[in-house]
């Protein structure tokens, strides 16, 4: 075995038991072969045994492979390994040295603890027995001796204790290799009889154990001062090296050589900036990366001030380091480079920053799932400044490319590059959400996406308005191809919604291109019956990708009867108590699914389709359900807060149990509850289980889970199946639960002043027109309920859209063919009010109130 200064391990020789660590079927090699699986691991030491091999990382992680017939790999079994495998039982033991014997292994921890494992047939493990050990075991006889060195021979082991200048040996001694004056095996450590010439003036430097012999190398030093131990392991970046670079005391040629060695090697970087205070780097695990973040920050800050240094580093990172990163790294230490590079890259100029960020994003996305999961865990534990810096890095690159796409939608190369940046942002966003970090959703939003949506909408409009001209000029196919590609890119981004603000999400919903229309032809007197019978037959593709058109048999002469009228009436009927489909809270303000069915189950499937169609067609509907419904659609677990929203008395009672400061046992509660007339055991394994202080959280969790999940599981799954038959899951998952409810249900922030401010006038009408002045005077005199009725009359919605009243762009124009008996009319899809020019304000008020009370005018152009 050989270890290079840049951290590469090379092996050669036989591979009968996988001792080369290459692959199972590798025949062996007479020339050096690179052990690629260890790429990126910052190694401190290597050791080759009889037919097994070990390496040790700078953070004390031990890897072994090869023959394991006696348990010499310390993995708890006797199965050979053909690739480097972490000895998990030594994690956290602060291992500083390893040594392989013929069929046994020894390790030394900081502080002097010795572990041995493998073959013990000659007593070489030192455990006062001749048994094999399959797990690392402390050599108890050496406990407290502060051992400073350990080395293994073929069947014997040597250790030295620096403080006492003693050497101990154990194992096979049949040829005198134990140095204790006897020719027998020893199963416990015995002192070596050193020559009298080796007095106090000499210091033991190194132990060497061969096949059947041993050596001790000592040296004489004036003043009995210990000789410095030569640096071992790989080359790493530290303050001293950076200081040399910045001082100008070394030739640029030497500095470039150092830069190339360190920044071309993931192993070297992964071994740099370790948090050595209190030995914290030895605690490296899936929870702790072992880096000293403050040291990294100050070091990179120094480097970034020197343009020559940073330019050379960028070149090496771009040309050598990034292409060499291993997508299947071994061990957590190999992932430190993915934390270090963003801190370096974010200090670069825009062009360099974008290029390196893109290359880094590609490498992150190529990581195997297990490594990616560990990296996400590291992200979740980054200091706030680092985490925000990571988000800003990928956000800036994303915003830059989005701006370029908006400026040149024909640039297909940029469109293919963008999703990888956004994908990293989405991953970090999900990490922040699950870890409850202080970073907010607004930190991820890229407002430039709104401009891109506007540009793409313009392209769609041009396609519709100029199709004939484009055909004549031969440009149609090129534009169609470009539009299809842009739509594909946008759909990809939609699956990564963290960059979208609510306005952008709603804009996408409103302006997405439909592939056609599918009609429902209904009787006003049988809305549900006709809707259900026809929706059963509509294919999934049409439900998801075609726009809904609604016709009433009573108005077939009209080209398209208002969808909003349809949704308003059908949901009013569905959610009414007479439908028997739902249960209601005590004040009848909110609905939930029943635990026992009163209607056929298929109705919930069809109800799900109708909800999805309302969502697809941007219709605000009457859907009086708690937030739990929208959470469940998005696979977010409902909470006690959601139960309180539905049933405040029950929910607050459960909250009281959680907050109760005395003994809960005094309440004499049990895990048996009654819900919707059904007795339920929340813990079937222990009927009648008592609620105590120690299990009250479990009791409340199970109570909430039963009401919002288990009791309605069958019905909700049917509803969900219908919903996703009609709705593309990716589009739904753009929204947070609160946003989804707002899109479907609207809000109750009735700001009538904004409605008036945003109103525009057409034809002969203008703001100071007498009829308009009268109209607003009448409107101001309406009651609160009458104003809401007017909103329904104008838009088809009882509530305000999620974006607020500013999203309602009312237009008012004269109704030219009219008499004084005509009522005002509304084209709801356009929020267009057609207002007759009445002779006086009183007539206008009478006719307007009559119109909104009779809900007339519900159709669209």
Keywords:
861 residues, alpha+beta, Methylamine Dehydrogenase, Chain H, four-stranded antiparallel beta sheet, 29 helices, transferase, ubl conjugation pathway, repeat
Quick description:
The chain is an alpha+beta fold and 861 residues long. Helices cover 41% and strands 16% of the residues.
Instruction: Tell me the name of the CATH homologous superfamily of the largest domain.
Output: Hect, E3 ligase catalytic domains
Sheet bearing the most strands, described? 4 strands, antiparallel
Whole-number count of domains:
5
Counted by DSSP, the helix tally is 29
Helical/strand content category: alpha+beta
From the N-terminal CA to the C-terminal CA, the straight-line distance is 80 Å
CATH class of the largest domain: Alpha Beta
**Overall geometry:** elongated
Describe this structure in words.
With 861 residues, the protein is an alpha+beta fold. It folds into 5 domains: 2-220, Methylamine Dehydrogenase, Chain H; 235-349, no CATH class; 382-499, no CATH class; 514-745, Hect, E3 ligase catalytic domain fold; 752-855, 2-Layer Sandwich (Hect, E3 ligase catalytic fold). It is built from 29 helices and 27 strands. It has a 4-stranded antiparallel beta sheet, with no helix packed on it. Strands 8-9-10-11 form a 4-stranded antiparallel beta sheet, with no helix packed on it. 39% of the residues are buried. The model is unreliable at 223-231 and 856-861 (pLDDT under 50).
């Amino acid at each position: 075995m050989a270890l290079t200064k840049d951290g590469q391990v090379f092996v050669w020789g036989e591979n009968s038991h996988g001792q080369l660590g290459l692959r199972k079927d590798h025949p062996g090699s007479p020339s050096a072969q690179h052990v690629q699986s260890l790429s990126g691991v910052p190694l401190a030491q290597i050791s080759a045994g009889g037919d097994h091999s070990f390496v040790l990382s700078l953070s004390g992680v031990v890897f072994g492979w090869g023959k394991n017939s006696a348990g010499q790999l310390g993995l708890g079994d006797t199965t050979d390994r053909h690739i480097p495998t972490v000895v998990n039982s030594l994690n956290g033991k602060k291992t500083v040295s390893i040594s392989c014997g013929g069929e046994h292994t020894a390790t030394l921890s900081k502080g002097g603890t010795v572990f041995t494992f493998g073959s013990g047939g000659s007593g070489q493990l030192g455990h006062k027995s001749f048994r094999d050990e399959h797990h690392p075991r402390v050599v108890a006889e050496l406990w407290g001796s502060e051992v400073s060195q350990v080395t293994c021979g073929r069947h014997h082991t040597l250790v030295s204790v620096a403080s006492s200048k003693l050497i101990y040996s154990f194992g096979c001694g049949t040829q005198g290799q134990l140095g204790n004056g006897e020719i027998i095996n020893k199963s416990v450590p015995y002192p070596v009889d050193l020559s009298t010439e080796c007095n106090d003036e000499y210091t033991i430097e190194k132990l060497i154990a061969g096949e059947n012999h041993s050596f001790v190398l000592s040296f004489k030093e004036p003043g009995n001062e210990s000789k410095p131990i030569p640096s071992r392991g790989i080359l790493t970046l530290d303050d001293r090296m950076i200081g040399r670079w910045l001082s100008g005391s070394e030739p640029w040629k030497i500095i470039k050589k150092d830069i190339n060695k360190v920044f071309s090697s993931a192993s070297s970087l992964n071994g740099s900036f370790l948090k050595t205070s209190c030995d914290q780097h030895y605690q490296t695990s899936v929870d702790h990366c072992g880096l000293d973040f403050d040291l990294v920050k100050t070091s990179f800050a120094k480097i970034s001030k020197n343009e020559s240094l940073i330019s050379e580093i960028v070149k090496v990172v771009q040309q050598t380091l990034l292409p060499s990163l291993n997508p299947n790294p071994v061990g957590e230490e190999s992932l430190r480079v993915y934390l270090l590079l963003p801190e370096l890259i974010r200090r670069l100029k825009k062009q360099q920053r974008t290029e390196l960020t893109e290359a880094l994003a590609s490498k992150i996305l190529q990581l195997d799932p297990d490594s990616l999961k560990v990296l996400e865990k590291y992200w979740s534990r980054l200091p706030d400044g680092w985490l925000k810096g990571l988000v800003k890095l990928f956000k800036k690159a994303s915003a830059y490319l989005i701006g370029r796409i908006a400026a040149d939608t024909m640039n297909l190369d940029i469109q293919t590059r963008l999703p990888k940046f956004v994908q990293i942002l989405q991953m970090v966003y999900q990490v922040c959400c699950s870890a409850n970090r202080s970073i907010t959703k607004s930190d991820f939003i890229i407002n430039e996406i709104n401009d891109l949506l506007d540009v793409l909408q313009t392209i769609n409009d041009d396609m519709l308005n100029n199709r004939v001209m484009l055909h004549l000029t031969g440009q149609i196919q090129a534009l169609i191809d470009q539009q299809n590609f842009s739509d594909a890119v946008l759909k990809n981004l939609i699956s990564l919604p963290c960059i979208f603000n609510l306005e952008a999400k709603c804009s996408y919903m409103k302006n997405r291109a439909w592939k056609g229309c599918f009609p429902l032809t209904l009787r006003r007197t049988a809305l549900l019956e006709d809707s259900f019978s026809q929706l059963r037959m509509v294919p999934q593709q049409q439900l998801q990708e075609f726009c809904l058109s609604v016709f009433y048999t009573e108005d077939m002469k009209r080209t398209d009867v208002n969808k909003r009228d349809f949704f308003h009436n059908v949901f009013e009927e569905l959610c009414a108590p007479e439908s028997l489909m739902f249960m209601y809270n005590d004040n009848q303000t909110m609905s939930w699914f029943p635990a026992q069915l009163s209607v056929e189950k298929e109705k919930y499937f069809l109800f799900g389709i109708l909800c999805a169609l309302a969502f697809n067609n941007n219709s605000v509907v009457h859907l009086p359900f708690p937030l739990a419904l929208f959470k469940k659609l998005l696979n977010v677990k409902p909470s006690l807060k959601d139960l309180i929203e539905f049933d405040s008395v029950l929910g607050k009672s459960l909250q009281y149990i959680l907050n109760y400061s005395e003994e809960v046992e005094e309440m004499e509660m049990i895990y048996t509850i009654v819900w919707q007339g059904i007795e339920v055991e929340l813990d079937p394994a222990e009927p009648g289980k008592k609620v105590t202080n120690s299990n009250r959280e479990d009791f409340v969790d199970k109570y909430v889970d039963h009401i919002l999940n288990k009791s309605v599981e069958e019905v909700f799954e049917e509803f969900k199946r219908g919903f996703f038959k009609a709705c593309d899951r990716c589009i739904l998952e753009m929204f947070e639960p609160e946003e989804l409810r707002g899109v479907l249900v609207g809000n109750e922030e009735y700001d009538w002043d904004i409605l008036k401010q945003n109103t525009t006038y057409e034809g002969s009408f203008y703001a100071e027109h007498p009829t308009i002045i009268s109209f607003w005077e009448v409107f101001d005199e309406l009651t609160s309920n009458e104003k809401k009725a007017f909103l329904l009359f104008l838009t088809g919605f009882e509530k305000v859209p999620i974006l607020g009243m500013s999203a309602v762009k009312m237009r008012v124009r004269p109704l030219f063919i009219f008499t004084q008996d005509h009522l005002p009319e509304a084209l709801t899809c356009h929020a267009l009010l057609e207002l007759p020019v009445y002779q006086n304000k009183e007539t206008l008020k009478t006719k307007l109130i009559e119109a909104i009370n009779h809900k007339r005018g519900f159709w669209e152009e």
